[in-house]
Each structure stands twice: as structure tokens, then as C-alpha cells.
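Our consortium's second objective concerns turning raw sequence data into structural hypotheses that experimental partners can test. To show how far this objective has progressed, the report includes one record in full. It was chosen at random from the queue rather than selected for favorable results. The single chain below, 562 residues long, was entered without modification.
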Amino acid sequence: MKYVLVTGGVVSGLGKGVTASSVGVVLKACGLRVTSIKIDPYLNTDAGTMSPFEHGEVFVLDDGGEVDLDLGNYERFLDVRLTRDNNITTGKIYQSVLDKERKGDYLGKTVQVVPHITDAIKNWIESVSVIPVDGKEGPADVCVIELGGTVGDIESMPFIEALRQLYFSVGEDNFCLIHVSLVPVLGVVGEQKTKPTQHSVRELRALGLTPNFLACRSAEPLLEATKQKLSQFCHVPVGNILNIHDVPNIWHIPLLLQNQNAHNAILAQLDLHNVATLPNLEEWTSRAQKVDGLQDSVRIAMVGKYVGLTDSYLSVVKALLHACTACSLKPSVDWIAASDLEDETAKLTPELHAAAWKTLKSAACVLVPGGFGDRGMKGMILAANYARENKVPYLGICLGMQISVIEFARSVLGLERANSSEFDAQTPDPVVIFMPEGSRTHMGSTMRLGARRTLFQTSDCITAKLYHNPEYVDERHRHRYEVNPEMVDMLENAGLKFVGKDESGQRMEIVELQNHPFYVGVQFHPEFKSRPGRPSAPFLGLVLAATGQLGDYLSQQQNGSL
């Protein structure tokens, strides 16, 4: 196994995940099979119990793993399907070591960070790196490892030491270290400053790791003099100093690496020239150029709880980008805090309330994504009501589907107190209920998680046609609450059709409203399986409906021209 380690310095949020993904894309374009591992040094066992404001969205894998959003980048860029073990956390490592200690596996030894924790990290990396993630048999050729945080963080020290030991054990021909750093420009001087990177590399070297490559983040391309200076003080050849400057869209990053001959340098470092081919990035090139050239846009109202941090809905935003690109459009996402639509806001801050409603009414479609808790719930119901009554295309995801059911029960069935038991445990009309198998005492990994099959109840529904499959679809889930099956008949008789159900027929998965251009709710999270060039069906349907193209699209598909 060949390993490519991506570390970061100076500041967090430099784009290590995109850099690691792009390195994987370039190597894959050279005919190599690539897998990925993300190391998160926090003590949480996984990302499942963290607020989106803490760490961005929680990405869900096929096996139900709740992981860091960077694994979503890996899956989208590399078109692979990772497992929960591809995300290593301090919590997982310590838990595994302590479990072994309790069982007596260490035979009376004093359990220490070195060697027991570091050995556990190395063993985890070596065992996970050979798991195939691309649907083929046998292990990958290269494993790209991203170490979260920045070099020097106390919490990442055991991982740095374990990776140093791994480098020593596998040898320099099987290990390549890329250090991502920042080259800022001070406004007063206007000079590209190398000192932050010098200090970061010095700290990395003091810990026993010497970078083979520097991936320098900057606003503008690096000057040759800057590269020479970095090379001199960081002991990295000029040809191995990669500049990842700001670009119009992130699909340019693999092309940036290719243009700087990064693939050849990495292949040489890993002694892979004899098995690699010339890179084929034609698809990436055309995709990046297409996005750059898009002129027309579609306005999408995103009504959610966590709109203050766009990373909270990263996969939703990417799925919208994939769908819009397929329609030759640019996504123009209008972020609306759901609470701003509520009557209480009209009393306290009328300007905010008026602006939110103006934004909602000027959008071509409405999207209500997932979330937990009752904050903003009233605003989401108002948004769903507006979309339903005014025949504005609407897509509700997870909570967004439940919101559409609650709104329908209140407005159409006249059940004024209809609600979810999550928001009102005493509601006389619980249209959304807690799932029987859920835990009320433990939060982590107790939801309905991972890939589950949804069976279409009719092949004549919009979603079945969009999925190009009249029978079923497999999508990823993350929820504790579900539509109350005892209320289904009443809702369906009034025109809200549950066109997708689970294999038991008791769990509602997809809802569509009759006599509406596009009013769809899905209990699953289709955004997690959206890919560049293969947009998620519900998102594609939303964009097509928002631009008046859905009818033609479905007709062409029915006639066999799609």
C-alpha cells in the first residue's frame, strides 16, 4: 500500500479536504485505484452528536456511519463509497484500546499512549486502507490520509507520532507527505509572506515528519521568488511546491495540480510510474469550464435552521450545484432563517421579517432541508404552506418532508393542533411520531441510519420517473421520527400521496401532492449520493420544475429519448 498524508498548518479551514480529494482525483486519472481516510483528533466517537455549527454537516455513509463532511468531498470527487471506519477519531481509538484493556488483552502491561495508542492508530490505518471502496475486488493502490486540525495541536500529537512510525515502517517509497499551508499577503506591504509556512514546516519536522510537497494556499498565484524562498527554508524542491490559489470553482483544483505536474512528482515519490498511465482529466476539464461559462441562474429559497453556517448544508448545496449544472444553470441560493418568517419576528424585528418574506416570494422554488428541534419549525410550516398554495416547486428533505405533512394536516384536514411529537408531545393529532426502535436515553448512533430501500407504490409518480426506476430506490437515512402510519389514509384521501414506502409498507418515505407542479417530500437524504455528472433525482426535479422544464423532461424520458 502507498500512502499520501495531507497535513495542515498555520490556520484551519485552508481546504485540506478538497486538496486531499483533488490529489486522489489526479491519481485516479492516472489509472490508479484510490481510497481515503480522514483523521479527526476530537474525542467524540463520531460526528453524530455534534451541532452543525460546531463542525458543519454530519455526512452519512451507506453503512450508517455519521462522519465528517470531508468524507462527502472524497465520495463526490472520487466516486467511491466509504465506510464508517474510513473516519478515525480520538474517541474511536481510545475506546478500542480501553475495551482491549478491560478484556485483559495487554497481559498486565501498563497501557500508554506510546506504544498502545499509536499502534492502534497504525493498525486501524493499515486495515482500513485495504478495504475496497470502488466496487472492485482487492485493495486500492493508494490511500490518501487527511489529518484534521493543524500541526501543533495537542490533540493530534498521538496521530503525528503514529504516522511518523508508519512512515518509518513502510519506507520512503511508500509514503508521501503533502503539507497544506497559507501564504498570506499583508494589505499594507502587498508581499507574499512565507514566514507562517516556514514556522509550520519547522514544527512538523520537529515532530519527525518532513514534507515532500508543500500545497500553498493563496489568493493569487505564487511568485517564482516566493517559491524559491519556500524551497530554501523548508527543504522542499521548487518543483514540489504546489500553488493552490483561489479559483472560480473547486472543480479546477485537480486541473491546477495537473498543470503543475503534481501527478508526475507524486508518482515518482511513490515509485508508481511503472503502473500509472497518462492522466485523463477531460471530464473534469469540461465540467469546470461548463460551470465557469454558465450565465443563467435559478433562485432557490433555502429555508432552514442553520443558515448562519453554509457548511451545515454542504451536501445540499453541492447537490443543487450538480442539478443546476445538468440544466446549464447557476444555482443562486437565497438563505432564509426559518424563524425570520414567523409572526413573532414580525413583532420584534419587522424589517427582518419583511426581508425574509420578500426573499421567499422572489424565489423560483423552495427547499426545506433536514434538522432537529423545534426552533424555526413555525417558519418552515409557513414556507411549505406558501409553496403549496401558490404552486411553487417545493422539496422537503427529512424534517422538510415531515413539515409538509404537518402543514397539510393543519391547512387541508383542519387539524389545527396537528404536529410532530418531537415538537409537541401532547398533540392530539400526532402526524409525525417517534420511531419504536429509537432510544430516548442515548443520542449517538441510535437513529435510523444508512442506506435503506424505498419501494415505489406506483410507477406513475414523479419521483419514480426521475429516478428512472419504477420499482425502488436505495438512499441514505438519518432520522428518529416518522410519519404516523395511522394517519396515512386520512392524508391520502385528501390528496397527499405517499408514493414511496419502506419494505414493510409501514414507514413513509416519499410524499407527492396531486395537482401541483412539484411538491415532493423525502424522508431520506438524497444529497449524500449526488455526484458531479450524476445529479440526485429529487434535486434535479426541483430545478427542472423551477424553470418550467419538468414536463418536457418527463415526456422525453417516457418517449425514450433520455
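The partners drew two points from this record. The longest strand covers residues 448-456. The chain is about 35% helix and 20% strand. Both points have been shared with the crystallography group to help prioritize constructs.
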